[in-house]
Automatic annotation (TrEMBL):
UniProt enzyme class: transferase
GO process terms (BP): tRNA threonylcarbamoyladenosine modification
Annotated keywords: Acyltransferase, Cytoplasm, Iron, Metal-binding, Transferase, tRNA processing
Protein name: tRNA N6-adenosine threonylcarbamoyltransferase
One Pfam family named in its UniProt record: TsaD
PROSITE patterns for this protein: GLYCOPROTEASE
Domain called Gcp-like: residue spans: 28-338
Primary localization class, coarse: cytoplasm
UniProt function note: Required for the formation of a threonylcarbamoyl group on adenosine at position 37 (t(6)A37) in tRNAs that read codons beginning with adenine. Is involved in the transfer of the threonylcarbamoyl moiety of threonylcarbamoyl-AMP (TC-AMP) to the N6 group of A37, together with TsaE and TsaB. TsaD likely plays a direct catalytic role in this reaction.
Cofactor(s) needed: Fe(2+)
Origin superkingdom: Bacteria
Length: 365
C-alpha cells in the first residue's frame, strides 16, 4: 500500500509518500516547506498568509512527491499513483487546513482512491511508528528510510507537546485515545515562543530559547513550576510566562541584551517547563501502568527535554520502554499523517471525498 500524506494545518506545507509492505514501512518522500520566514515579520503565524503560501506551493510539491526516486528501465522517471490519500483534517487553522483537504478531495475524485481524514495530534503520536535510519542505509548514503518499529507495546502514554497543544493521552490499542490531562491555558510551545518574544529573540522563539538555554545555568533563577503538585495531569504555562516577563522587566535596560543573562533566563525557564512535564509524565505512566512512553510535537525536538525524560524514565520506570523521536519527525510533517493514515486504512476507515471537511477544533477521540 502506498500512502500519500498531506499536512497543511499550520505553517508547514508537507507531502509524504509512505510505502507499507506487510506492516513494514519505507518512507519514500517527506517534503516539508516551512513558511517560517514568511511569518517572521508578523511575529506569529497569520492564518490567511499561511493558506496563501500553502496554495502557492502544494501543486509543485505534489509533482515532486509523485515522481519515483527510482528510475525505470528506459531511464524515464516513473510517476507514482498512491493507493490511499491521508490528509490532516484538524485541529489547526481553518484556512490552512482547507488547502490540504481540498487537494485531497480533488485527488480522490480524479484518481478514484480512498481518503482518510487524520487528526493532526494522532499524526504527532504516529510519528513514533515511522522508520528510523538503518545503519546500512545511512552508510550507503541512500535517502530512503526503511526500518520497522515493532517495539511499541500498549498501553502507551503519549506526551504531545507542540505550539498548540500540551496533552497526555493513554492509548490502549491502535487509534484509541483517552485524554487524561491537558493545558488549561497556553501550550508549552506557545509559552516558549512568547518567552522568546519577551527576550527579543528571533522568531520562532522555541528553538532560540533552547539554543540560549544550552549556554545558561538552569538553577540561576527560581521560576515557578505551575501545577507541579496538583495531583492531576493538567498543565498551566501562562503564569510561568508572566514570571519571566516580570523578571526581565526588572533587569536594567543596559543588561537586557547581555548574553549570560539571557542564557540564564532561558535555561531556568526551560528547566521549569521540563520539571513540570517530566513530573506529570512519570506520575501518569505509573498510575496507568503503561508499557511505553511516546513523545510527539514540535517541543519534543528540545534535546534537553528528551535527555532528562530518558533519564527520568530509566530511574523511575525500569520496565517502561522509551525511544527518542528523531528530530525531523517532531515538528509538523506529512510522513506522520501518512503513518496514522495507514492504521486507519488497515481498518478501512475511509471517508467519501464529498464528506471530507476541515474541522479546526477536532479533539483527539
Ligand atoms: O508541532 P509543531 O511543529 O506545530 C504545532 O502543531 O504547533 O510545534 C511547533 C512548536 C513551536 O511552538 C516551536 O517554538 C516549538 O514547537 N519548538 C520548540 C523547539 N523546537 C520547536 N520548543 C522548544 N524547544 C525546541 N527545541
Ligand atoms: Zn503539530
Amino acid at each position: 500500500m502506498l500512502i500519500l500524506g498531506i499536512e497543511t494545518s499550520c505553517d508547514e506545507t508537507s507531502l509524504a509518500l509512505l510505502e507499507d509492505k506487510g506492516g513494514k514501512f519505507t518512507l519514500q518522500k517527506n517534503l516539508i516547506f516551512s513558511q517560517t520566514i514568511t511569518h517572521a515579520k508578523y511575529g506569529g503565524v497569520v492564518p490567511e498568509v499561511a493558506a496563501r503560501a500553502h496554495m502557492e506551493k502544494i501543486a509543485m510539491m505534489l509533482e515532486e512527491a509523485l515522481y519515483s526516486p527510482i528510475k525505470s528501465g528506459n531511464d524515464k522517471k516513473k510517476r507514482l499513483r498512491p493507493d490511499v490519500i491521508a490528509v490532516t483534517a484538524g485541529p489547526g487553522l481553518a484556512t490552512a487546513l482547507l488547502v490540504g483537504v481540498e487537494t485531497a478531495r480533488t485527488l480522490a475524485y480524479l484518481w478514484k482512491k480512498p481518503v482518510v481524514a487524520v487528526n493532526h495530534l494522532a499524526g504527532h503520536i504516529y510519528a513514533n511508528w515511522l522508520p528510523v535510519s538503518h545503519p546500512e542505509i545511512v552508510s550507503r548514503n541512500l535517502k530512503i528510510r526503511a526500518f520497522v518499529r515493532d517495539d511499541i507495546k500498549f498501553p502507551a502514554l503519549c506526551l504531545i507537546i507542540s505550539g498548540g497543544h500540551t496533552e497526555l493521552v493513554i492509548m490502549k490499542k491502535h487509534l484509541k485515545y483517552k485524554l487524561i490531562g491537558q493545558t488549561r491555558d497556553d501550550a508549552v510551545g506557545e509559552c516558549f515562543d512568547k518567552v522568546g518574544k519577551i527576550l527579543k529573540l528571533p522568531y520562532p522563539g522555541g528553538p532560540e530559547v533552547a539554543k540560549h538555554a544550552a549556554k545558561g545555568n538552569p538553577a540561576a533563577i527560581k521560576f515557578p513550576r505551575p501545577m507541579i503538585d496538583s495531583h492531576d495531569f493538567d498543565f498551566s504555562f501562562s503564569g510561568l510566562k508572566t514570571a519571566v516577563l516580570y523578571h526581565f522587566k526588572k533587569i536594567p535596560k543596559s543588561s537586557q541584551k547581555n548574553q549570560k543573562i539571557i542564557a540564564d533566563i532561558c535555561a531556568s525557564f526551560q528547566q521549569a517547563c521540563i520539571d513540570v512535564i517530566i513530573t506529570k509524565t512519570i506520575a501518569a505512566a505509573k498510575k496507568h501502568k503503561v508499557k511505553t512512553i511516546l513523545l510527539g510535537g514540535g517541543v519534543a525536538a528540545n534535546s534537553e527535554l528528551q535527555k532528562q525524560l530518558k533519564a527520568a524514565i530509566a530511574n523511575n520506570l525500569q520496565k517502561t520502554k522509551y525511544t527518542a523521536l528523531p528530530i525531523e519527525y517532531c515538528g509538523d510533517n506529512a510522513a506522520m499523517i501518512a503513518a496514522a493514515g495507514y492504521f486507519h486504512a488497515r481498518k478501512k476507515q475511509f471517508i467519501p471525498w464529498k464528506k471530507l471537511n476541515a474541522d479546526p477544533n477536532w479533539d483527539l477521540t
